[in-house]
Amino acid sequence: MAAPAHAQTSSDESEVARATSSDDIVVTAQRREQSMLSVPIAITAVTGAALANAGVSDSSQLATVVPNLQINSAYGKTQPNFSLRGIGVGNEYSANQASPIGVYIDDAYIASRTSQGAQLYDLERIEVLRGPQGTLFGRNTTGGAINMITRKPDLSGSSGYVEASYGNYDTLHGQAALETTLVEDQLGIRIAANYDRNDPTFRNLIPGKPSPNGGTSYSGRIQLRWKPVPELDVLLKAYGSKDKLTQGALHSVGATPSGANPITGYTRDGLGFYEVEYGYAGKRRTNSYGFLGKISYEASDSLTLHSLTSYDGGYFLVDNDADAQPLSLLDYTPSSKTHQFNQELRANLSTDRLDLVLGAYYGTDTTRTNNNLGLYFFLRDLGAPPDVTGATGGFSINQRYIQDRRSTAIFAQADYKLTDQLTLTAGLRYTWDKSKLRNALSYFGDYDYEPIVYTVTDPANYGQPVPTQYGKDGALTGRLALNYEFDSGAILYASYNRGYRGGTFNGGAYASVAQLDYIKPETVNAYEVGSKGRLFDGAISYSLAAFYYDYKNQQTNEVINFTGFLRNAGSATVYGGELELNGRVSPALSFNASLGLLHSKYDQLVLGRDVASGTVGVDLAGNELPFAPHVTAQAGIDWTMARIGDGDLKFLPRVSYTGHQWFSPFNDRESFPGDPIGNERLHQDGYAKVDAQLLWSNDRITAGLYVKNLFQKHYYLYGLDLRTFFGLDFFAPADPRTWGAMVRFNF
Asked: Which of 75, 160, 245, 252 has the most C-beta neighbours closer than 10 Å?
């Protein structure tokens, strides 16, 4: 473990000792070290080793180990959309939108959703906090927070590992870490790197065209830790990563009862689930980099001061055959560059009865976007000459803008022991958010992307960018909780949390200045009761939570023709619960399991449009929220089957289940009055996925076999209605079965 985040009182030390002795996990969900079973928050914490055993290698796979978590994306593993307890961005795909699930790496907020698709390597643990975290985390966390905590130098000795695996689709994985202590107990360095490559997992049947879901990813990290005196702890980190991938796999289902596209006549009839026919297959390019500095100073036995400074940047380009057909209807190429800065100052005060956190936060981020759309280019490909407008052979759209955001907050949370067993928690955070959209300019062009008519432009100066648009919000959020600890160590808690997600500009505005809406902030009032503890003389640990959400002004995306619109849903109600179990049946057999139950519905929401008149007119009250399955469940075992030589042979199977979910707030309703098809296809039925590993290991070596999606279950991760303008529904299918062998050497 890294050095303590603050000076520990005797009660904190007993919690950590209890966690260590019982294989519980020490977490920092309340910005101080505590046993996970003593934190009155619905939290799933998974160690780096447990992630590896579950086959989780990047953040897009976390749903297999966290109840009520869904992850979807229009771009494969690039730019994952997280949804916790039904709260997420839905099928929003614009790069400028902030996730309602705050994503952090070593406590530093990651604003860009593209940079949230992190490779998970050399981690100490991941903490997933469900429910609004509007006090200690704060920024845009109406749904929850995901904190990825990397392994730090421990300032004692030298160590490391080298890991490699090879599998089907010519999949090659390599990972390594090296740590050395330069001055015992004072100065140490840790270096880690990761490499992945694979051939495409889907087959493009069009000769000479690339196939989807293949490519290479690599990343590295270096950390320097310095403790010149016991009271001062300084950590410096730098990292970088790069993805060079082919585009994600897509299925195009035509908007006729037969599944044919009414424009091109194309249908997927005769194709296997893992086969596509791309007339144009693109690429995905993602770069991320960053620097972090953390300083902790123990001013006294009861007071510790902290500073966190970080700078992160990235680049994102997706070149998509978005219609997924031999004839080109829609080529979509979004790209963006981002950079951000975070500064947080925090003080932790700990006494026998009081744990107090005081802090201030300042963050800025900038997104520079340049999106290109090629529409009906199949006319050009068939030889249609341009007319006087240049558009007969298809036409194009170019959209560009720069978005700047600034967020400032002050916060405080106090945990006060009313008695030795009853603790009151009260916290408040006030946030000031400012946004501006500048250099916004869009035009319709010919198939060479030369402008024909400007659509988003300065009304007083045609052909020039729209004057800078401004948005400003502020909100008071917080937490109130009571936590009772029984003599056995079990806890029972009840809490109220208020979360806030700042307002935002519509990043999908191509066709008119009027579409440059600034959408109001969304808020969640969350009520939760829960219990954590151990059963059967400590053999089994449990975590149980039930929640009720009053959700206001959810920021909801709707695609009209080829343009995205952001709306504020009036209100929604979400409630449900989770149960997590971890236990040891015998010295040779342990297990973990979880169950998530969820009910969601819109109380007020009107979307849809009449194609002829453009009027709004479909009342969706009573519909379920998208990406909010009623049931999620996971279960896995760790079974030591035999002792062979000086090592153990283990079998680690795991099954995860996701219930039925909708990909659109329309559910099975029509998209506009008179829609002949409706949205009933935009869903995924419930499915179960089985993964497994067979490993032999001792203190130095681990070797074995792995398989993911053992029974090759066919399922979709994402869906979008593009029927009005392109005559198709757009789906993102999941990968097929993958398998291979791995070996790891520790030193």
From this structure: 252
- Of the chain, the percentage scoring pLDDT greater than 90 comes to 68
Q: At CA 456, angle to CA 451 and CA 461, rounded to 5?
A: 85
The residue count of the chain comes to 747
- Evaluate the CA torsion angle 269, 272, 273, 276 in order and state its sign: negative
pLDDT in tens, 261-286: 988 899 999 999 999 999 887 888 99
Residue ranges of the chain with per-residue pLDDT less than 70? 1-23, 76, 118, 384-392, 561-562, 609-616
The rounded distance, in Å, linking the Cα atoms of 199 and 740 is 14
Is the torsion defined by CA of 445, 449, 451, 452 positive or negative? negative
Global pTM? 0.92
Number of other CB atoms surrounding residue 352 within 10 Å? 9
Reduce the DSSP state of residue 379 to 3 states and report it.
helix
CB 221 within 8 A of CB 150: yes
Q: What is the DSSP string of 93-162?
A: --TTPPPSEEEEETTEE---SGGGS-B--SEEEEEEEES--TTTT-TT-SSEEEEEEE----SSS-EEEE
Q: Cβ contacts of residue 420 below 8 Å, gap of 6+? A: none
| CA-to-CA separations, 622 to 16, 496, 667, 668, 669, in angstroms, rounded | 46, 25, 10, 12, 11
CA distance 167 to 691: 14
- Cβ contact 509:516 at 8 Å: yes
Tokens 């690599």 belong to residue: 218
Q: How many CB atoms lie within 10 A of CB 289?
A: 17
How far, in Å, CA of 15 to CA of 483, rounded?
15
What is the spatial distance between Cα 680 and Cα 180, in angstroms, rounded to a whole number? 57
Tokens 């849809």 correspond to what residue?
608
